[in-house]
Task: inverse folding
């Protein structure tokens, strides 16, 4: 936030809110008025923001929630790293309340995935979690600053034509609703946290409509998979062991796999930057390996999701000491599985 506050000449507004609830409320208000909105926190702050994130899901407004994960629960280990907020990001709201989740793998990757978070948020009119961690937040690496013309386009289109306007009309491909700026003549509309009637956005308690809207919001998030890259395999496309990682474990996992490949062992890895929805080819990739190993700085949250979604016998390797994996720890676990 200190860095962002230096760039007022680009129209950037930053402020330290009095609490987490005010921060997410301000971000939703900024989004409602047509701005790119970001709020940053760690796990305890996400807990306080959760009700308002549900409001952003119901109103279908693009907001990015940056969670730089640290040790928990409660105030836990404020200066130490952990990856224990994945299930919180996935399910930590009342009701069926799906959001998109992305995660950077390296310090330099933080820029690219933050950019992706905003691209997805605005394309699909949805909140997006940016799940980083303390290890990445305090890390650094050489990084070439990209030129603007080589960045993916964020094609924001505000609705201006009042002809046939309804606040919950749907784009055929993305199922996103129109982004209509308050004060635009003819586009007056009402939004809020109560369930919406399909198309009109009027408050509705009709049972069939509620189930329809719940399924529609879920399908909207699922369709993001059509607009993100497929997962890439480091190593051979099939074999004995596949390591599946996410977030700041990338360096240790890649180095360990590289070392095992140097010994001629049948070991590959993938690193997930898109956690909800998962890349379209993930199930196929998992099925090509005899064993799947999921190293995480938690007690098995991605492991749980992979087992549930793909019915794969994923083996977990867990560390919750506030410190990153050592390469030697991962090599030892791979050798054990081999």
Result:
């Amino acid at each position: 936030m200190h860095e962002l506050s230096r760039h007022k000449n680009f129209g950037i507004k930053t402020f330290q809110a009095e609490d987490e609830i005010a921060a997410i409320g301000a971000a939703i208000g900024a989004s409602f008025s047509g701005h790119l909105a970001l709020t940053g926190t760690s796990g305890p702050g996400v807990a306080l923001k959760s009700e308002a994130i549900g409001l952003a899901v119901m109103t279908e407004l693009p907001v990015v929630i940056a969670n730089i994960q640290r040790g928990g629960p409660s105030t836990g280990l404020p200066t130490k790293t952990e990856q224990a907020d994945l299930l919180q990001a996935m399910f930590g709201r009342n009701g069926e309340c799906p959001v998109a989740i992305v995660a950077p793998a390296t310090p330099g990757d933080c820029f690219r995935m933050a950019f992706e978070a905003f691209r997805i948020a605005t394309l699909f009119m949805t909140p997006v979690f940016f799940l980083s961690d303390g290890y990445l937040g305090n890390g650094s690496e050489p990084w070439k600053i990209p030129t603007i013309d080589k960045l993916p386009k964020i094609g924001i289109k505000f609705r201006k034509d009042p002809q046939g306007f309804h606040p919950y009309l749907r784009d055929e491909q993305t199922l996103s609703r129109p982004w209509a700026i308050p004060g635009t003549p003819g586009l007056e509309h009402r939004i809020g946290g109560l369930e919406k009637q399909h198309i009109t956005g009027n408050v509705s308690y009709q049972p069939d409509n509620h189930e329809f809207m719940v399924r529609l919001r879920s399908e909207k998030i699922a369709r993001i998979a059509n607009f993100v890259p497929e997962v890439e395999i480091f190593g051979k496309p099939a074999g004995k062991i596949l390591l599946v990682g996410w977030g700041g474990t990338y360096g240790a996992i890649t180095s360990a796999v590289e070392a095992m490949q140097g010994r001629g062992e049948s070991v590959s890895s993938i690193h997930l930057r898109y956690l909800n929805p998962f890349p379209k080819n993930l199930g196929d990739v998992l099925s090509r390996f005899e064993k799947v190993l999921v190293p995480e700085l938690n007690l098995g949250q991605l492991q749980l999701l992979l087992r549930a979604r793909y019915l794969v016998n994923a083996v977990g390797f867990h560390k919750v000491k506030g410190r990153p994996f050592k390469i030697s720890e991962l090599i030892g676990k791979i050798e054990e599985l081999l």
